[in-house]
Specification:
heterodimer; A: alpha/beta; Gyrase A, domain 2; Four Helix Bundle (Hemerythrin (Met), subunit A); Rossmann fold; seven-stranded mixed beta sheet; 17% strand; B: 629 residues; alpha+beta; FAD/NAD(P)-binding domain; Elongation Factor Tu (Ef-tu), domain 3; Arc Repressor Mutant, subunit A; six-stranded antiparallel beta sheet; five-stranded parallel beta sheet
């Protein structure tokens, strides 16, 4: 096992940066780039205690920082490890990393620290997967679900389904392996009923996926409206930052501004678009084209109107474009400028009155979005599917169960048995009971260098 | 003991049962000087238990043996009394052919084939020792003082190795059908480093045909159109079987005498087969069952002996007679052979690799009941694989390994060598995850290339196979490209099978895919224009079109798992350095040293979590290797 190192803090300028070194030579390498003011070698300091040190490469002392050493197996990776904290400038960090490489460490690959931790028995595959979830979590609800699943709440649910499928399969096996004896315990009718129940359970899990995705990966949302209704101001109200340029001049936003914002427990991947209107301006026309693309791709549409005035034909045109894109049922009408007046009312069933200027109406927006997208929060947060891989596997199991029910109607039990076997295999994959190289790779591929 | 130097052999096969025969034929037919040793030349290819070949899963094995170039299928076809396709009303994956056999004709056929095979000598002598030199096999020793030098030895000792027969309180040393048992070989094998265990099996009574009342039993005839194993000349059903049932009175007698069974008194220490239990075991295990089915099967054309399948027992003869006489049709049955249990030495098959060679004793192979399996078909399948591999070994060639996805032979060998078995292993269709791909009808397509590469498939057989393949492909192609136009006959068929009317015509293959509609229905519609194809081609065309979706999905599964199945584990991998793997898994894998991740994943005591750790460790290993260049 070679000794590897990487910067474990985010790229760019920061107050401090941390370089993690792991492997049999980690402590020696750290010692080679450190010089303690008190003169004690780093190797002899107390494990787990951060101590002050100077970082140098040969005679060139370039920074003043902290170092902590850990001995196997008591470290994150389960190997000898050193963590060097330097000042966070890109140049200083780069210099220290180079010194570490010069002292004998190799560059770590993406996810290598977690991978080593896993390999050394410091965590299970599903924990590693949940660690990915914890690192990625941007909403409280995603964090809560990741933690619960880290402790196995989903596995428990899947176990019950697993056992039931196995029982039914055993009966199918008796049916095919003992043709001369009346060994079947379960009639096709009973099997159908029991499978329908399993199907329901899996369906409920799959249904939780839309909420799970909304709290983990986020909902693709787009803001549309005729020019100058305050779309960008609405975006700023959501983000709480001046991320889009807001002016009084119509047609200011010509490119699409993308933002990831939290709306209550939900995560929105927002696209603010150029105002939708007929335009002579070539650049603006390109912008409008992009807006239409974003609209057709969106899972959620915020249509912004000036609620302080009567709606005009330009607003009607916006509504027409929403209808043409088939997004009527995914649209929340945002009636802006409540601070000026409430003249027009929402042209579609779901509308919320707000003032992007003073921030009123934000709290009504959350239930409106949830209602529009039928995002009920499932009772048990541990049973929410936030993970796309698990969802795909469970969805596959659900399809096979449905097929098995169909096969029982038109073929014999042994054919249904094939579907049951495939359903079991899919569930086993969701649950980490079976492994494929693809799954292992997939899990670690989500990590970047330094994790 | 002093030994004289007998003739030099390439391969010595110990035992001329179903495993030994296929092993010796495969070895001799591929050019190795082979000797087949047997305790008695009169019982070569004996069927000491049921007079039948095939059955669920077992039928598949016989088709596969035939595809690989083995002899069992032909012998069965030519000695058959009755042929019946089991599970015929179920899906094609589980159709299993079973044939009643004339035992004497079967033995005669096989002995004749053996005697006429070049390079093969058939020798009546007890092998009492396997000699090794520097850990390698160098020959066998017989009870008559002969030392036969050999480069490879295949052990096919069946139930003869330290065989012991039990009938109630009576027991004595003997092999099957009261042959002498081979008592000295076990010690020699232990000295060579072979780990032996003790298993048990049993057989039911045989009674006189004229003493039975057939009117009280159900007659069971063979199929109208008897199917044969592989491509062979036609054969006809000659004799019927009969079915009868045990009853509460039968069960009472057995229950009351249970303590007189050596199975329950503790005299028998060997483990018996769960899937072929004795009648007393069935009654203990299924106390709620009101009756058990008994098949009354003829033993041959020239004998009055009748076999009572389902009544395997080790109870005293007196009790056997009493309970048999409670069964309808058997009230006056005259006993000819008493049922008995037999206990024998066999090896722990996890000592073998996938070529059926002992990993630690180069040149030593095992097959059949010696490897802990049960059944003639399981034995023959292993015999063939061991014979081919011993021959390849002697000739210094790459071994033949049949993957699980290629058939039940590969599945069976993978199961016993990787997982081991704690009772006599029986093949079953549920043991394969690729059932629908491993049908009887496509055995040749799956395996003939292996047999051809091994040198067991003749040019004629191969040409015939290619011709059949072409017919299958052409007919599938035709049905996928032609349509039925609207007609009254088509309307009528759909209505009869409960389908709604069609607006226009329908593609022929699409019609065939509908449940309840058969290829015969299609040909009926086509009338005089329907092609005349051999039944084996028709079966394949029908199955491959009808179940196309399932077949495709299973093929995808095979492909998906092939990656792990074929991912090699470096021979020098230090499992103990992979700390994330549980200690038990590290120990098991260090001991077995599986060649691929696929095999490692099936080693008992290794969990999926261990395998994912292994995968990550292998990636690391690979990266570091790459980096070092």
């Amino acid at each position: 096992m070679r000794t590897v190192a990487a910067v474990s803090t985010p790229r760019g300028k920061g107050g401090v940066a941390m370089i993690r070194i792991t492997g049999p030579d980690a402590v020696r390498v750290a010692g080679l780039v450190s010089r303690r003011p008190c003169g004690t070698p780093l190797e002899e300091t107390e494990p787990g205690r951060a101590v002050r040190t100077l970082f140098h490469k040969g005679d060139d002392v370039f920074d003043d920082g902290m170092a902590t050493i850990f001995f196997a197996p008591r470290s994150f990776t389960g190997e000898d490890t050193a963590e060097l904290v330097c000042h966070g400038g890109p140049l200083v960090t780069q210099k220290l990393l180079e010194a570490v490489f010069a002292a004998g460490a190799f560059p770590a690959g993406p996810g290598e620290f977690t991978r080593r931790a896993f390999q050394n028995g410091k965590m299970t595959l599903s924990q590693a997967e949940a660690v990915g979830g914890l690192i990625d979590a941007k909403t409280e609800s995603h964090l809560r679900t990741s933690l619960l699943q880290c402790r196995g709440s989903l596995s428990k649910k899947l176990n019950a389904v697993f056992d039931e499928l196995k029982f039914l399969l055993a009966s199918v096996y008796a049916y095919i392996d003992y043709p001369d004896e009346d060994m079947t315990d379960v009639t096709p009718e009973e099997m159908k009923e029991r499978l329908a129940k399993i199907g329901k359970t899996l369906e409920a899990l799959c249904d939780s996926r839309s909420y799970g995705k909304a709290i983990s990966e986020g909902i693709r949302a787009v803001i549309v409206g005729k020019p100058n209704t305050g779309k960008s101001a609405f975006l700023n109200m959501l983000t709480g930052e001046d991320s889009a340029i807001v002016t009084d001049e119509a047609g200011t936003t010509r490119d699409i501004v993308r933002e990831q914002v939290k709306l209550g427990d939900l995560l929105l991947n927002l696209a603010d678009t150029a105002g939708l209107r007929e335009s002579e301006n070539k650049v603006e026309r390109i912008g409008i084209g992009k807006s239409l693309e974003a609209l057709s791709d969106a899972e959620l549409v915020f249509a912004v109107f000036d609620g302080s005035k009567e709606l005009d034909e330009n607003d009607a045109d916006v509504l027409e474009k929403i209808r043409a894109a088939g997004k009527e049922n995914a649209t929340v009408c945002v009636m802006n400028k409540e601070d000026i007046g409430a003249v027009s009312s929402s042209p579609l069933p779901c509308g919320v009155r707000i003032s992007a200027l003073n921030g009123s109406g934000l709290k009504d927006l959350i239930p409106a979005v949830k209602e529009r997208l039928s995002l009920a929060e499932p009772e048990d947060p541990g049973e929410i599917l936030t993970n796309a891989r698990q969802y795909a596997a469970i969805e596959k199991a659900r399809t096979h169960v449905a097929r098995a029910i169909e096969a029982l109607g038109s073929y014999t039990q042994d054919i249904a048995g094939l579907d049951l076997e495939m359903a079991l295999a899919s569930l086993a994959e969701a649950d980490g009971r079976t492994v494929s190289e693809a799954v292992v790779d997939e899990i670690f591929s989500h990590f970047c260098v330094g994790k | 003991m002093r030994f004289y130097q007998a003739e030099q052999l390439d391969i010595a096969v110990v035992g001329a049962g179903h495993a030994g025969i296929e092993a010796a034929l495969a070895a001799a037919r591929t050019g190795c000087r082979t000797a087949l040793f047997t305790l008695t030349l009169d019982l070569v290819a004996n069927m000491p238990c049921n007079p039948s070949i095939g059955g669920t899963g077992k039928g598949h094995l016989v088709f596969e043996i035939d595809a690989l170039g083995g002899e069992m299928g032909r012998a069965a076809n030519r000695s058959m009394l009755q042929s019946r396709m089991l599970n015929a009303s179920k899906g094609p994956a589980v159709h299993s052919l079973r044939m009643q056999e004339d035992r004497a004709a079967y033995r005669k056929y096989m002995k004749d084939v053996l005697e006429k095979t070049e390079n093969l000598s058939l020798i009546q002598a007890e092998v009492i020792g396997v000699r090794t030199e520097n850990g390698r096999v160098c020959g066998v020793e017989t009870a008559f003082g002969g030392f036969y030098p050999a480069k490879a030895v295949i052990l096919c000792t069946g139930t003869s190795l330290k065989g012991k027969i039990f009938v109630g309180e009576a027991n004595y040393e003997a092999g099957p059908d009261n042959t002498v048992s081979a008592n000295r070989l076990s010690d020699s094998l232990r000295d060579a480093g072979v780990k032996l265990v003790r298993f048990k099996t049993g057989t039911p009574p045989r009674v006189h045909a004229d003493s039975l009342d057939y009117d009280k039993m159900e007659r069971q005839d063979g199929d109208e159109d008897p199917v044969l194993f592989g491509s062979d000349e036609k054969s006809v059903n000659r004799l019927p079987c009969y079915i009868t049932y045990t009853n509460q009175e039968t069960h009472r007698i057995i229950r009351e005498n249970m303590e007189r069974s050596p199975l329950y008194s503790g005299d028998i220490v060997g483990t018996g087969p769960r899937y072929c239990p004795s009648i007393e075991t069935k009654i203990v295990r299924f106390p709620d069952k009101e009756r058990h089915q008994i098949f009354v099967e003829p033993m041959g054309l020239d004998t009055k002996e009748v076999y009572l399948q389902g009544l395997s027992s080790s109870l005293p003869e007196e009790v056997q007679k009493e309970f048999v006489h409670t069964i309808p049709g058997l009230e006056h049955a005259v006993f000819m052979r008493t049922a008995y249990a037999i206990e024998y030495d066999c090896c722990d098959p996890t000592q073998l690799d996938q070529t059926l060679a002992f990993r630690k004793i180069p040149g030593l192979y095992g097959a059949g009941q010696f490897n802990g399996t049960s059944g003639y078909e399981e034995a023959a399948a292993q015999g063939l694989v061991a014979g081919v591999n011993a021959s390849l070994f002697v000739r210094g060639k790459e071994p033949m390994v049949l993957p699980r996805s290629s058939g039940y032979v590969g599945t069976l060998i993978d199961d016993i060598t990787v997982k081991g078995t704690d009772e006599p292993y029986r093949v079953m269709t549920s043991r394969s995850e690729y059932r629908l791909l491993l049908r009887q009808d496509n055995a040749k397509k799956r395996l003939i290339e292996y047999g051809r590469a091994a040198g067991l498939v003749t040019d004629d057989a191969y040409e015939a196979f290619l011709e059949e393949e072409r017919m299958v492909e052409d007919e599938k192609e035709r049905l996928s490209s032609e349509r039925f136009h609207h007609s009254d006959k088509l309307e009528q068929l759909l209505e009869d099978r409960g389908y709604p009317k069609l607006a226009g015509g329908i593609q022929k293959a699409e019609l065939l895919r509908r449940p309840g509609i058969s290829l015969a229905d299609l040909y009926e519609l086509e009338g005089a224009g329907a092609p005349k194809l051999p039944p084996s081609v028709l079966r394949r065309v029908e199955n491959e079109i009808k179940y196309e979706g399932y077949i495709r999905r299973q093929l995808e599964d095979v492909e998906k798992s092939a990656k792990l199945e074929e991912k090699r584990i470096p021979e020098d991998l230090d499992y103990n350095a992979i700390l994330g793997m549980r200690l038990e898994a590290r120990q098991k894998l260090s001991e077995r040293r599986p060649a691929t991740v696929g095999i490692a994943s099936r080693v008992p005591g290794v969990s999926p979590a261990d395998i994912s750790v292994l995968l990550v460790a292998l990636a690391q290993y690979g990266n570091e290797r790459k980096g070092d260049i």
